[in-house]
Amino acid sequence: MEHGPLGARPVSPGAGGPEDISSLIAAMMREVPDFPEPGVAFKDLTPILADAQGLAAVTDALAETARGADLVAGIDARGFLLGAAVALRLGTGVLAIRKGGKLPPPVYSETYALEYGTATLEIPADGLAIGGRNVLVIDDVLATGGTAAAAVKLLQHAGATVTGAAMLLELTALGGRDLLEPLPVTSLHRV
C-alpha cells in the first residue's frame, strides 16, 4: 500500500474501526496557523480528500452512519464532495444544500445566525420528491453547529426525516453537537 501525503499510511476501506479512521484523519489533516485570522488554527482536510485511499476510508466510515437513509444531503461546499461519495457508496441520490442566492426560485430556505450577521441555506422547492425521505446530512466540519442545525430544519421543513448527521471533523470546544440534539451525530475525528 502506498503512503499518502505527510507520510500517513491510509487504512484500507473498511479495515479499521473508529480509532483507525480518527488516526488517519489526524495524520493526513494539515493545520494552518493564523488562518483565516490570527489565533485560529485552520484544519485543512484537503489532503484526505485528495488521497484515494483516505477518501475511500472516510467515505466508508461516513456511509456506516446511514441509519436507513435513502438520500444523502451534503452541505455547501465540501459536504458536496463527501455527500456525493457517501451517496454513491450507499446507492442513493445526493442533495446539495446550497448557500443562499445560488438556486433559482422557488426554494425552501432557512436563515440562521452567525457570529456577525446571518446566513441562509436553500434547496429547490419543486422538482424534488424529498417529502417522506430519510436523509443523512453530511458535512466536513462541525464547529458551532449553526449551519448543520439550519440544514436539518430546512430538510424537515421540506418534509424529510433526518436520520442523523455525519461529519469528518468536530471542533468539540465550540459545542456544535448541542444544537443538533437529539439527532444522532457522528464525527470521525474530534479535536
Walkthrough of the structure:
The chain contains 6 helices and 9 strands. The protein has helices spanning 18-28, 46-49, 52-63, 78-90, 146-157, 176-180; strands at residues 30-33, 41-44, 71-75, 93-99, 107-114, 117-124, 134-142, 161-170, 185-190. The protein has a 7-stranded mixed β-sheet with strand order 5-6-4-3-7-8-9, sandwiched between helices. A two-stranded antiparallel sheet has the order 1-2. The chain starts with 17 loop residues before the first helix and ends with a strand.
CATH topology: Rossmann fold
The amount of beta strand, in percent, is: 25-35%
Sheet of most strands? 7 strands, mixed
Q: Structural class from helices and strands?
A: alpha/beta
Q: What is the count of distinct domains?
A: 1
Strand order of the largest sheet: 5-6-4-3-7-8-9
- H/E element string? HEEHHEHEEEEHEHE
Would you tell me the overall average pLDDT?
A: 91
Our count of helices gives 6
Q: Architecture in CATH?
A: 3-Layer(aba) Sandwich
Give me the count of strands.
9
Q: Can you tell me the CATH class?
A: Alpha Beta
Relative helix content: 25-40%
In terms of per-residue confidence, which ranges show pLDDT below 50 for 5 or more consecutive residues? 1-15
Radius of gyration: 16 Å
What is the straight-line distance between the termini?
Answer: 28 Å
Shape: globular
